[in-house]
C-alpha cells in the first residue's frame, strides 16, 4: 500500500517568535520537525510568514490585493520568507527528512482579478521522487499590481487537489476552531455551523483568518483538520485532532 | 512602440572566476550589469553556474541525465547556484534594474525521457509587470532520477518562445562561434556550416558545449547572437555582434 499523501501547513506563528521580528522559535520548530520525521506519509509542507514576512509586507504596503513595483521592497519581503524557509528546510534535513525548498515567486502568478495560477508539476514530481517540498507564503507577480502577497493558506488550497492529497492539516497556535465559549468545535460540515463564532468571510478570504480557512477547507473536498502544535504527531499518525472540516460541497 | 523583448544568457564563466571555486568575478559582473542597466529592452536574464554550480554537481555525480535522491547533495548544488543568483540580482538592483530571482527548482521538472517542463507564466507575468526575472542553472525533479541538472542553455531555449522574444543573446567568454582558424564565424544558417569547427552534437545536447548551443539556437526560430563580454552593450543596443545564429527550420 502506498503511503497517504498529506499537505501540512505549519502556521507562521507556530514556528516563529511572535514578539521578536525575524526570529525562529527553535524549540517549537524542533518539536514540529520531530513529529514530521516520524511520519510515513508523502508530505508537502507549507509554512506561513509569522514574524518574518508580515512586517516587511506591512512596511511596503503589500497585501494579497495591493501590490508593489518596487524591486527592493519585493525582494525584502521575499528574502525574509526565504530565510524562514531555509531554517525549516535545514531543520527537516537534519532530522532525516528529504526536504527541498519550493518558492512561489518562481512558480505562481495572479491574474487581474487576483486568481492564483500555481505551477504544481515541480511539487508533484519532487513528491514522486521521494522529496518533501517545503513551500512558503511569498510575493508573486500580479497582473496590474506588480507583486502581491500569496498566503500559506492559499497554497494549501491550490496544492491539495494537485497532489491528490488524502488529508490536509493546518497546524495553528490554537487547538482548533473555537466556539463562542472558547471550546474546540469537533466537526464543521457547513460554514453556518461556525459563522457566529468565527465571524463573516467571503469565499476568497484565504489570507490567514479562521473564517477564511474554514470556508476554503470546506470547499476543498478533502478531509482537513485544524489543530494546535501539541496535536501534530497525532494528526500525522492518522488521528483527527482539533476540528475536522468535512470538505465536499457545502 | 513597446520595447523589444530580449532573453540574455550570461555565461557562468563570464561572471565567475574560473580558477577559484564559488567566487564572483565582481569586475566582470559590474561591467555586464552596467550594460544591462543601459538597455530599454524587456529583459529576461539567465545565468549559468560557472565556478559555483559545476564542482558541486561533479562532487555529487549529478548531470542533466544522471540524478541524485540525496537531499543534502541536491540542496548543496541548489544553494551554490542561488548564491550566485543572489549576487547577480543584487548587482542589478543596485544599478537600478528591477531584477527579481526565479528559481528553476520551483518551476521546472523533467519527465522520464528527460524532456523539460518549465512553468513560464510567473516569468511572463513578472516581465509584464516591469520586472527583470533572473533565472539560473539549477537542479530540478526528474522522473525516475531524483533531481538532475538544468542548464542555463536549456532555460534560454524554453523561455525564448514563452516570452515571445524578439532576440536571444548568449554572452560567452569567447567572441562567437569560431572556425577552424580561430576566427569568428559571422553567420550560421545550418549546423553543417560549422559542424567541422564545433564538433558533433545531437539535438538534445544543450548542456554548455558550443555545438549544442548552435543546434538549439538554430531550432529556436528567433534570431540569436553568440558574443563575448565586450560586445554585450552592442548586443543590447540592437547590434548583431559575434556570430548570428539565423534560427528557423534547418
Automatic annotation (TrEMBL), chains A, B:
Q: Which reaction does it catalyse?
A: isopentenyl phosphate + ATP = isopentenyl diphosphate + ADP
Citing just one GO molecular function, the answer is: kinase activity
The positions annotated for binding substrate are 49-50, 54, 152
Listed under GO cellular component are:
cytosol
Q: Which InterPro entries is this protein grouped with? A: AceGlu_kinase-like_sf (IPR036393), Asp/Glu/Uridylate_kinase (IPR001048), Fosfomycin_R_FomA-type (IPR024192)
The record's SUPFAM superfamilies line, in alphabetical order, gives: Carbamate kinase-like
Q: Which residues bind ATP?
A: 9-13, 209, 213
Q: Which UniProt keywords apply?
A: ATP-binding, Isoprene biosynthesis, Kinase, Nucleotide-binding, Transferase
User: Which biological process terms from the Gene Ontology are attached to this UniProt entry?
Assistant: terpenoid biosynthetic process
Instruction: Tell me which residues make up the Aspartate/glutamate/uridylate kinase domain.
Output: 5-219
Site residues by UniProt (Transition state stabilizer): 18
What EC number is given for this enzyme? 2.7.4.26
Q: How does it assemble?
A: Homodimer.
The UniProt entry's sequence similarity note says: Belongs to the isopentenyl phosphate kinase family.
The job of this chain, per UniProt, is described as: Catalyzes the phosphorylation of isopentenyl phosphate (IP) to isopentenyl diphosphate (IPP). Functions in an alternate mevalonate (MVA) pathway leading to IPP, a key precursor for the biosynthesis of isoprenoid compounds such as archaeal membrane lipids.
Q: What's the protein called, per UniProt?
A: Isopentenyl phosphate kinase
Organism, per UniProt? Halomicrobium mukohataei (strain ATCC 700874 / DSM 12286 / JCM 9738 / NCIMB 13541) (Haloarcula mukohataei)
